[in-house]
Amino acid sequence: MPQAGQLVMLVSPKGKRYFRIVNPEVTLHTHDGKLEMADVLEQGFGGQALTHLGRPYSILLPTLYDLIKGVKRHTQIMYPKDIGYTMLRLGVGPGKRVVEAGSGSGGMTLALAWFVGDTGTVFSYDRREEFSELCRQNLDWAGLASRVQWFSKDIAEGFEQTEVDALFLDVRTPWEYLDQAAAAMTPGGTIGFLLPTTNQVQDLLAGIEKSSFGEVEVLEILLRKYKVNAERLRPDDRMVAHTGFLIFARKTTRYPCPG
Fold this sequence. Notes:
With 259 residues, this protein is of the alpha/beta class. It has two domains: 7-60, Vcp-like ATPase, Chain A, domain 2 (Roll); 65-251, Vaccinia Virus protein VP39 (Rossmann fold), CATH 3.40.50. Helix content is 26%, strand content 29%. The chain has helices at 37-43, 64-70, 80-90, 107-116, 129-142, 178-184, 198-209, and strands spanning 7-11, 17-21, 27-30, 33-36, 48-50, 56-60, 97-101, 121-125, 148-151, 164-169, 185-195, 213-219, 226-227, 234-235, 245-251. The strands form four sheets. A seven-stranded mixed β-sheet has the order 9-8-7-10-11-15-12, sandwiched between helices. It has a four-stranded antiparallel β-sheet with strand order 2-1-6-5. It has a two-stranded antiparallel sheet with strand order 3-4. α6 (178-184) links the parallel β10 and β11 (185-195). The model has no long low-confidence stretch (mean pLDDT 93).
């Protein structure tokens, strides 16, 4: 059952989603009529509450996918299809300490905070204070801000942490910050990057060749949904294809090959 002060997702008959903190004294005004939050509390998760016009709204506990799609954004966020693979490749889990550079609107930050749990910490860097503030607001909204520390600084000056388990760079020229990243990471830790164009990937790969990182992987993830019709199952007319290149590497200790 939802509790007062908890974030819930309300879905209209036409599929519009409303994210609201439950307050039994509040009335939600929609195009389908007024919805009493007291009724939402009474019906509970998986149930439906009726507006004063008799329109049913489904009451759901938002998943991580729902939260990422629902954040307020001033910048492009990473797509869930890219975030899921990134979490696995970075090895993010309960108790991990993870640095990200490029807070943006906080979609990736939210996912990292979700996976590190109450015993882990996310250190989020952005040069622009307004992006850090937006990210912080979105994490407050999702109830995960306690797992994140924000830093408004130029990462060219280095990261304030050491021995972090993983690091993710979502910046335009990540090859300029490989030494700073390596200094912050534990040996064997995984670093990830997101880049939109091939020439940026080439510049990054050239930089990695001269760095303390190895075991490099470059990929992109394509997503194709299908029309939900049991009698005429076929792909959707459009698909989410290229959203960015993902690059991963490990911090390693390199020795010169014998001649």
